[in-house]
DNA sequence: GTTCGTGCAAATGATTTGCACTTCG
DNA sequence: CGAAGTGCAAATCATTTGCACGAAC
């Protein structure tokens, strides 16, 4: 049984209905290899159904989030907006790296995080139910580009000269 | 030299001016043991200067963020709003635990994170400039309360009975 | 005195919601 | 048919911004 059929099943189990809009949004998500915003899902899906509404996209995404089918997170360095992660159900324990230059997001496992959790609980008590780990930096190809260009020589006076 | 004097110095170094509003906001932050929102800083500070404006609080907090004097982060499970962290300059390498019940935030060090960064770079290349790690769960005292209460017996039919 | 900062009100922008209409089961 | 979902427009709410006035240096 494929992903969409599984989601449909969970949906029916909670008294929900499968509609053409929901199917379209699910199919759009299934094709994503990135972490789209609601607006991006909307734009991509609307190519096949121009009268789809952004509210419906939001409602569907939030509903999928409750079902545990997609994740959502916000990243620093861009305008504050949720990005949705269709990979969470296939691969629940992943974390994110985001490249500051090309904005690529890399998903990676972090089994060592369990040790960090254990350390925390040993020191402070309590219990940990979930964790969010995000790395920010330069991805491999952006780092290579920056290195091959060499450092920029920044001279404020030279810039001022241009204005004369 | 105390914290406020240090901040004033950084401020002057970049052509900024010290005003009564900024001093008040700094003093308010210095007394915080939690991670207040802009609105909360505003409410606390306004007790001493009722004509302080929320815009000024935002502008000051963003400026302190640029100076590296305060940090800002958002937490899940509440309405999306920035929380400001006055402790970042005294203790730059800390991360956050947030209790799902009492909303207490615990700051903790995570030196092991360096190993996770090294592992990531070994696998994917690139470079890491910053990291955000947030744990969500129950703090020690909330966990004890939950455990001492014992599990709740949830019976939907019993709830329906009340409506008759 | 000139530059920088503040207060105020209005703008922004992502997200949510009320409501009349439509569709699924 | 009746509950659940959609489209549309309007509401929300945190945050930002334009502008005229006031304060710091």
UniProtKB/TrEMBL annotation, chains A, B:
It comes from Thermanaerothrix solaris. Keywords: DNA-binding, Repressor, Transcription, Transcription regulation, Zinc. Gene3D superfamilies: 3.30.1490.190, Winged helix-like DNA-binding domain superfamily/Winged helix DNA-binding domain. This is Fur family transcriptional regulator. Belongs to the Fur family.
């Amino acid at each position: 049984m494929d992903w969409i059929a599984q989601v449909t099943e969970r949906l029916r189990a909670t008294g929900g209905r499968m509609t053409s809009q929901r199917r379209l949004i699910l199919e759009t998500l299934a094709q994503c290899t990135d972490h789209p915003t609601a607006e991006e899902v909307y734009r991509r899906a609307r190519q096949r159904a121009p009268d789809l509404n952004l509210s419906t996209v939001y409602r569907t995404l939030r509903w999928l989030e409750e079902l545990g089918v997609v994740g959502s997170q916000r990243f620093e360095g861009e305008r504050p907006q949720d990005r949705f992660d269709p990979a969470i159900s296939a691969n629940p324990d992943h974390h994110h790296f985001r490249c500051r230059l090309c904005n690529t997001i890399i998903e990676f496992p972090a089994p060592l995080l369990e040790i960090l959790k254990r350390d925390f609980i040993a020191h402070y008590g309590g219990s940990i139910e979930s964790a969010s780990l995000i790395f920010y930096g330069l991805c491999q190809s952006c780092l290579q580009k920056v290195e091959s260009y060499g450092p920029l020589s920044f001279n404020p006076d030279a810039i001022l000269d241009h204005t004369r």
